[in-house]
Every structure is written in structure tokens, then in C-alpha cells.
Amino acid sequence: MALTVLAIVRIRNLFAVVMLGSIYSLLAAAMFVVLDAVDVAFTEASVGAGISTVLALGTLALTTDREKKPIHTKLVPLCVVILTGAALIYGTLDLAPFGAADAPVHKHVAPTYLTEAQEKTTVPNVVTAVLASYRGYDTLGEVTVIFTAGIGVILLLGNWRRERQPGDDQNA
Amino acid sequence: MILEHFNYWIVVFLMMAGFYIVIAHDNLIKKIVGLNIFQASVFVLYISFGKITGGTAPILAEGITVYSNPLPHVLILTAIVVGVATTALGLALVVRINEAYGTIEDDEIQQAKEKEL
Amino acid sequence: MRSYLVLRVVSKLLMPFILLFALYVQFHGDYGPGGGFQAGVIFASAFILYALIFGVKDAGAVLPRGILRFGIAMGVLLYAGVGVFNLLVGGNFLDYNVMAKDPSHGQHLGIWLVELGVGLTVASVMVTIFFTFAGHRDRPQE
User: Fold this and answer.
1) pLDDT digits over B45-68, tens only?
2) Counting beta carbons within 10 angstroms of the beta carbon of residue C92, is it exposed (0 to 12), middle (13 to 18) or buried (19 or more)?
3) Mean pLDDT, range C91-97, rounded to an integer
4) What ipTM does this complex have?
5) Cα dihedral angle (A109, A115, A120, A123), rounded to 10 degrees?
6) Where are the alpha helices (DSSP H) in chain A?
7) Distance between the two ends of chain A, CA-based, in angstroms?
8) CA atoms within 13 A on the CB side of B10
9) For range A72-98, the mean pLDDT
10) Angle subtended at Cα A137 by Cα C122 and Cα B32, rounded to the nearest 5 degrees
11) Which residue stretches of A35-130 are H helix?
């Protein structure tokens, strides 16, 4: 994954960049399977590697696929990035070790979900149970976000104005 | 020590690479790809939190006692789909910007704006 | 794209299987990996494949824009409607316990309906976004 990202930083052909982005998503999906998150891997593979690539290619078709040579100096962004990265790595030192069963994350609500979900909802897939039942409000909000994004795209790119007045074409 | 945090360091590296793309490049499409990389690195971070060594996927079955934490999975699952919806919105904006200014390079858009004023 | 015979035949063969798989993911999400979000995306990808091979116009004939917009709104309404229904029956908003005779069945039914709403919205939004992107080029310049 790291190599793919380095390639994305270097390459200026946007078509190749989008394709590498797709590969990156697929690698992330494989990583999610290794980390036991099958539902998430499923989504990432279909969404990240599939739909978003198609959409990005659609945008390339409507605009251009060459990136111009940047004129700014790259030193300042590089410094900012290295500083932020160092701060974040310093922060990770306080995190619980990877894969530890006694990390604070696993102590809060997760045990309740795992023990109760089966009898309360009769749904063995805990991810689905939590998604739709325990955190139903969140999911409702997220569906609304998707709804809004869809409406936004229709408003920005759709030809709804022409649809309403079919006679406009001759006048224009 | 190194092995315990290696996953997090990879995440930090990916995150910073995405961040670098966003702030150092002028091309709007590349900025959006950078944002996606940043986003995916956050997903990996969350899923790493949820992992328990020796655990399995949180689909209840008999004879299994250790499951990984389902909560991060739920959060990220929805975040991925919302992410692609917002990415689509961003790409739509790029298309409109390209129509309005004839370019998708940040600095050229600035120049075109100044010329208009 | 119209001349690629292999692509046309293969995509026609694949379409029903992709749709079937999407439905399986949608309704089997309670027992295995899957659910409304994934199913919606897979369902949408079937139509996007169709649109890529046969052109947006033909795909638009299969799935008219009106139905898509109806689907976008219906999904969210179904989700929120389940919540309001629970309010009316006497529970809390999105509290599925009261939907059937005993709480656990109510939960299952509620989750099923809500996932259906999610799948409907996600699928229609994804197809709509793709159609608007692809159909944008044909629009006359103002």
C-alpha cells in the first residue's frame, strides 16, 4: 500500500493516478479481511475499487487527464507533513498494543453488543445488528447524507432545467 | 515495541502521504484522490483498533468465544459509503469548475478570477 | 462500445447474477457479511456495467430517471417511516421492540425493513450519480 501511495504522489498522468487509487482500495479491502472486518472489506472492495473509480474516470472524461507541472516549491508542504507525522507517531506511543484484548476500546460497549445481540435481535451478524438497531439513529443520519449528496449531484450536473421546459432548445 | 505499533505507523505514513497530496498539488482531481487516501488510512486505523489477536469476524457462531470489536466495523462501514457519496459531490463540483473556468488547476483558477475582477 | 460483441454478450450473461448476488447480500446480511449498504452498491454496479456497455440511453430506458428519484426518496422515507411507525405504536423512535408480538421478532423485522430502506437509497443514489456524470456530456452548452 505504501508503495502504491508513493507512486500516486509522483505520477502526473491522472488516469494512472485513478487506477492506482483503485488498487490502493483493493489492498485496503484485503487488509480488512486480515483484520477480521469482513463487512467492511466487502464494502471497500465494491465501493472504493468499483464505484469511485468509475466516477473518477467519468470526471476525467469530462475534464482533462494531464496534471500540469506544479510551480510552487514543495519544501513547505513537506515540512508541514513531516512535523504532523512526527506528532502523530509520538501520539501512537500511548496507544494500546495492536491486537491486545484488554485495550480500552474493547471494554466499553462492545461486550454488551456481542453478548446481547443474539437474543435481543435474533440476528447473528453483530455488525448488522449494531448498524440497524443499536445505532439506528446514526445510520438514519448517514442515509440522509447519501440522499443529500445524490440530490446535490443532480442539481450540479443534471439537466433538470431542460427537462422542465422542452421548448428551450429551439430558442437558444 | 516496534511490532506492537507497526500498524499505526503505516497508517500515519499513508495519512501524511494523502495530506501531502492535498496541500502540495494544484490539480483538483488529484486533491480528491489524496483526500480518499487520507480517508482510507483513517479506516485502517479504526479497524486496527477493533482487532483482537486470535479473534474472528463478529458473526456469532457456536464454539467461538473471541470476536473482534464490531463497533469500529459499523462506524467505518457507513463512513465508506458516505465517503463515496461526498467524493461524487466533489467530483461534480470539479466538473462544474472546469466548465466555468476551463481548467482544474488551482492557481489557474485564481488567475482567471483575478482577471475577471 | 457498440461493436464489442464479447463485452455485450458477457455483460448480458453477468447481469442477472450480479442482481441476484445483490439481493442475496441484501437479505442474507443478517446471517453473514452483507447488508443494505453493500447490496445497494452491488445492485447499482450491475446497472453501471450495463450503462458502460450499452450506453446511458439504453440503461436509462431500463431504469427511468423518475423511478430512480422515487427510489432515492423512498429509501429514506422507509427508514424514517419505520421510526415513526414505532412512535405511533407506542415505542420510542426506531425502537423495533414493539413492531411484532415479541421484542426479538420486532427487532428482526425492524432491522430487515431498515436495511431495505438503506439498500434502496444507496442503489438509486449510486446509479443516479453515474447517470448524471455520464449524461452530462450530452448537455448543450448554455
Assistant:
1) 888 877 777 667 766 666 666 777
2) exposed
3) 69
4) 0.76
5) 100
6) 2-10, 14-34, 38-43, 52-62, 75-92, 110-121, 126-129, 136-157, 160-164, 168-171
7) 51
8) 20
9) 77
10) 45
11) 38-43, 52-62, 75-92, 110-121, 126-129
Query: Which tens digit of pLDDT belongs to each residue from B83-93?
Result: 888 888 888 88
Nearest to C132 by CA among A55, A165, A147, B103: A55
Number of CB atoms found within 10 A of residue B9's CB = 14
Q: Which residues of B103-116 are buried (b: 16+ CB within 10 A; e: fewer)?
A: bbbeeebeeeeeee
Grid cell locating C37: 449498504
d(CA A140, CA C96): 14
pLDDT surpasses 50 at A89: yes
> Which amino acid belongs to residue A122?
T
Beta bridge partners of A125: B59
Residue A11, pLDDT score: 66
What is the structure's pLDDT at A168? 45
Amino acid at C126: M
Q: Please answer whether residues B71 and A39 qualify as being in contact, where contact means their C-beta atoms are separated by less than 8 angstroms.
A: no
The residue whose grid cell reads 487509487 is: A21
Residue B59 bridge partners (DSSP): A125
Q: How far is C71 from chain A (nearest CA, A)?
A: 10
Q: What is the CA radius of gyration of chain C?
A: 18
* pLDDT of C97 over the 70 cut: no
Strands (E), C20-141: none
Give C105 to chain A, closest Cα distance, Å. 7
Quickly state the pLDDT bin for A141 (edges 50, 70, 90).
confident
Subunits close to A (at least 3 CB pairs below 8 A): B, C
Gap between the Cα atoms of A162 and C115, Å rounded = 35
As a whole number of angstroms, the distance between CA B18 and CA A17 comes to: 13
CB pairs B-C closer than 8 Å: 23
| Closest in A35, A117, A139 to B78, CB measured | A139
* Matching residue, cell 463485452: C7
Angle, vertex CA C11, rays to CA C7 and CA C13, nearest 5: 120
Show residues of chain C in contact with A131, CB under 8 Å. Answer: 35
Contact C36, C52 (CB under 8 A): no
The 8-class DSSP code of residue B20 comes to H
Beta bridge partners of A66: A13
Amino acid (one-letter) located at C44:
A
Model pTM score:
0.79
